[in-house]
Amino acid sequence: MHPTRRTFGAAVIGLAATLAAGTPALAQFVPSKPIEIVAHGGPGSGNDLFARTIAQLMDKEKLIPVRMQVSNKPGGGSTTASAYLASKDGDAHTLGVFTNIWLTDPLVQMAAKVNLYDTLTPVARVVIEPGLFVVRADAPWKTLKDFIEEAKAKPGALKMSGGSITARENLVRQILMKQTGANWSFISFPSGSERMAALLGGHVNLMMIDPGEGIEQVRAGKLKVLAQLTDARLEAFKDIPTVKEAGYDLPKIPQIRGVVGPPNMPAPALAYYEGVFQKLSKSEGWKKYIADNYFEDGYLTAEASKKFLREYEADIRVQLQATGAKVVR
User: Fold this and answer.
1) Which partner from 120, 147, 183, 280 sits 20 to 30 angstroms from 85, CA to CA?
2) Residue 224, domain member (yes or no)
3) Which residues, 6 or more positions from 231, have their beta carbon under 8 angstroms from its beta carbon?
């Protein structure tokens, strides 16, 4: 064979092999500008604090080459935030942090048309949160049963602060009222600080919080825990009964938090963020955050998150219907 032809053939074969082997590298994505991370709650809400923790740890652990900037989009539960994220079709530099209400809102609001696992692009489920029923330290109730019995005797007189009416705390309230015949009001506030201020100020009587949100107030003697919404007692609250131990058999309603991208997020960007959040979940900073807030590590990959969200939505639909809520989808 002619030397030039043989050399040319070898070069073509070598180039093809190089391209085939290097295809993933050629397709790699690295963010080139600050990443906007959208929270549906106002400043001080659990969703806002969660987003800010992610941004801080990403920087501290040096997992991404750019900054994350938290963007608060409160309103309509999750609908303002989810609609904003949906408007970023194909964007590789915008993410959102979701909770249960991103699943619940489209079930009960006809105007909430953004589906968390179908319209948007799930990146990762990252934590599962327990819940604590708390009252002011000087409140007359010593147990959750005490509170519920008074709510039965005085329908509508007692009040509970919370976030969106589609948030977990209101769903739990609806289920408890259905089971017991009790009735207490639900007052919605846009931020966690406002909800806590309403409770400490005596404007409401009850609040359901995640442990990290109220542990300092409990330690300071300002709040009293009546029951914990967990499978087993948390070590920090080992003297406090679970809701089931208190005599109420609630269905499993885990409070989940995770990360989601816009519709049609490019596959290389999704792979990048999935890898970054997997690294974050294994970092020492994240493990400390989980431990300090009494969370459960709930990391799931993008595909596993999508499957979980689809199945959990079906569970929530059943739970809503059981309370008599009107489900529109």
Assistant:
1) 280
2) yes
3) 242
Q: Is residue 217 part of a domain?
A: yes
Tokens 């489920």 locate to 125
Nearest to 135 by CA among 253, 32, 254, 223: 223
**CA-to-CA distance for 271 and 302, rounded, in angstroms?**
9
Residue 279 and residue 225 share a domain: no
Contact status, residue 124 vs residue 50, Cβ threshold 8 Å: no
**CA pair distance 246, 147, nearest whole angstrom:** 12
Could you tell me the residue range of the domain that residue 144 belongs to?
131-237
Name the pairing type of β-strands 35-39 and 94-98.
parallel
* 60 and 115 together in one domain: yes
CA pair distance 144, 121, nearest whole angstrom: 39
Query: Are 214 and 229 contained in the same domain?
Result: yes
Walk across the sheet containing 159-162 and list its strands.
185-188, 159-162, 206-209, 131-136, 223-229
Instruction: List strand residue ranges (DSSP E) for 4-130, in order.
Output: 35-39, 68-72, 94-98, 121-129
CB 190 within 8 A of CB 42: yes
Please state, in angstroms and rounded to a whole number, the distance separating the CA atoms of residues 320 and 251.
Answer: 11
Element (H, E) at 218: helix 211-219
Q: Which residues contact 93 (CB under 8 A, 6 or more apart)?
A: 31, 32, 33, 34, 35, 36
Measured CA to CA in angstroms, residue 202 lies from 25, 48, 172, 198, 329 at distances of 59, 25, 22, 6, 38
Are 147 and 214 found together in one domain? yes
pLDDT at res. 14? 43
pLDDT for position 53: 96
Of 52, 125, 102, the closest CA to residue 278 belongs to 125
What are the mean pLDDT values of the chain's consecutive 10-residue runs (329 residues total)? 44 41 57 97 86 97 97 92 98 97 93 94 96 96 98 97 87 94 93 88 94 83 95 89 94 91 97 97 95 91 97 92 87
Residue 69 three-state SS: strand
Burial label, 122 (beta-carbon count in 10 A; 0-12, 13-18, 19+):
buried
